[in-house]
Specification:
This protein is 30% helix and 10% strand. By secondary structure, it is of the alpha+beta class. It has a domain of 39 residues: Erythroid Transcription Factor GATA-1, Chain A (2-Layer Sandwich).
Length: 77
């Protein structure tokens, strides 16, 4: 029987880099380069991307500003 050889994926894969829009590279997929992957990581670490909290989604207060519940409660100081 012939041995199965594992070929490397093509250098350029389908799709566009979400950071710069260039063609993606299989080594850095879904990005085109290490630089774009690092830019994306930095955005996550700075908090530029936010995954909504499940509790916020269930109670419907996704669009409410922080502290808006306290202001609308009708209590005065």
């Amino acid at each position: 029987m012939a041995a199965m050889t594992q070929s490397e994926p093509p250098a350029v894969a389908r799709g566009k880099c979400p950071i710069c829009g260039r063609a993606t590279h299989s080594k850095y997929r879904p990005f085109c380069s290490r630089r774009c992957a690092d830019v994306d990581l930095a955005r996550w670490l700075r908090g530029a991307y936010v995954i909504p909290d499940r509790a916020e989604s269930e109670d419907g207060d996704e669009g409410a500003a922080p502290g808006s519940e306290q202001q609308s409660s009708g209590s005065t100081h």
